[in-house]
Amino acid sequence: MLTSESRGAVHNQEHKLYDELGALARFVDHAMKAISAACPQIMSSSTQLPTAASHLSDLSKMTEDGTLEVMRLTEMIQDNHGRIAKELSAIVEVLRAMDCVTLAGRLGNMTSVFAQDGKCLTEIMTALSFQDLVAQRVKKLVAILNEVQGKLMELIVVFGLQDSCEAACDAGTAGYLLKQLEESKTTARKQKVADDILAQFGFK
Amino acid sequence: MPADLNMKILVVDDMVTMRRIVKNILKQLGFANVEEAENGQEALQKLRADTYGFVVSDWNMPVMTGIDMLRAIRADEKLKTTPVLMVTAEAQQSNLVEAVQAGVSNYIVKPFTAETLQEKIAKIFK
C-alpha cells in the first residue's frame, strides 16, 4: 500500500518525466525542422557530387592523354638521336681514317652534346611520372566523394526526401544521359556523352 | 656479376604511363627485352609461362597488388629466386618492413630518376 506521501513522490517523478519527455519531443521537432530546412542544400550537394567526381576523373584522363603524347614525341626524338649518334660515329671513324682529325674532333664534340640531350630526354620521361601520382590522388578524392555522397543519400532517405530523388531517376537512361550532358559542358567527354545519347535513340 | 642486358624483364603496373617510363629507362640502360603486365595476377601468369631475369613492380594495383604478387613469387618453387624491385609512392616504414618480410630485392619510391633505377638494379645483381 502506498502512503499519501509516497504517492505524492511518484506523482512528482511522473510530472518531471513528462516535462523531460516534452523537452525531448520539442528538441527532436526542432532538429527535424532544421534538417528539413537544410535538405534542399543537401539534395543539391548530393546531386553535384557525381559531377565533381566526373570532373576529377576527366582531369586524370586528360593528364594521362597529355603525358602519353609527350612520351610519344620524346621517344621519337630519342630514336632519332640514337640513329644520328650512330651515323655521327661512323662518319667520325671515316674521317679519322682519312686523317681529317680536326673535323673528326668537331663531330666527336657533337656526339657528346647528343649524349647530354639524351640524358635530358630521359629526365623528361621520368618527370612525367607526376601523372601517376596525380592519378593516385584523384582516385582517393573520387573515393572520398563517393563516400560523402553515400552518407548524404542516407540522410535524404532517413528524412523522407527519396521521392524527389526517384522522380529525377524516372527520366530513364536517356534522361539521365541528357542530365550528364548538361553537367559535362565543361568536361572533355562531351562528345562521348552525346554519342551515347544518340546510341540510345538508335544512332550507330 | 653485372646484369645481363639480354635478360627478359617484366614491368608490372596498372598505369600505362609508369610502365612506359620504366620501359624507356630500361631501354636507355641497355635492356631491350622488356615485357609488361597490368597487375600481379597477369604478371604471375607471364612469369610461370616464361623465364624472366627480374621484375619491376608497382605496389598498388587492382586485381592483385604488388605485395601479394611478391608473396606468390616467393612461395613458388620455380619463381622464388627471381629478383623483384618494388616501385611505389608508399614510403611508410610499415610498407618497407612488409616488403622486406615478403622478400623484396629492393625498393624505389616514386618519383624516381633513371640513376636511382640503375643503382638499384646494379645492387640486385652485385
Stretches of chain B where pLDDT is under 50 for at least 5 consecutive residues are: none
Total strand segments of chain B: 5
Number of strand segments of chain A: 0
Mean pLDDT of chain B: 90
According to CATH, the homologous superfamily of chain B is: Response regulator
Based on the coordinates given, report the CATH architecture of chain B: 3-Layer(aba) Sandwich
Beta-strand content of chain A: under 5%
Largest sheet of chain B: 5 strands, parallel
Distance between the termini of chain A: 88 Å
Q: Output the structural class of chain B.
A: alpha/beta
Q: Measured on Cα atoms, how large is the radius of gyration of chain A?
A: 35 Å
Give the ordered list of helices and strands of chain B. Answer: EHEHEHEHEH
Morphology of chain A:
rod-shaped
Q: So how many helices of chain A?
A: 6
Instruction: Classify the oligomer.
Output: heterodimer
Identify the most extensive interface between protein chains: A-B, 20 and 17 residues
Q: Kindly state the percentage of residues in helix of chain B.
A: 40-55%
Strand residue percentage of chain B: 15-25%
Q: Roughly what percent helix of chain A?
A: over 70%
State the helix count of chain B. Answer: 5
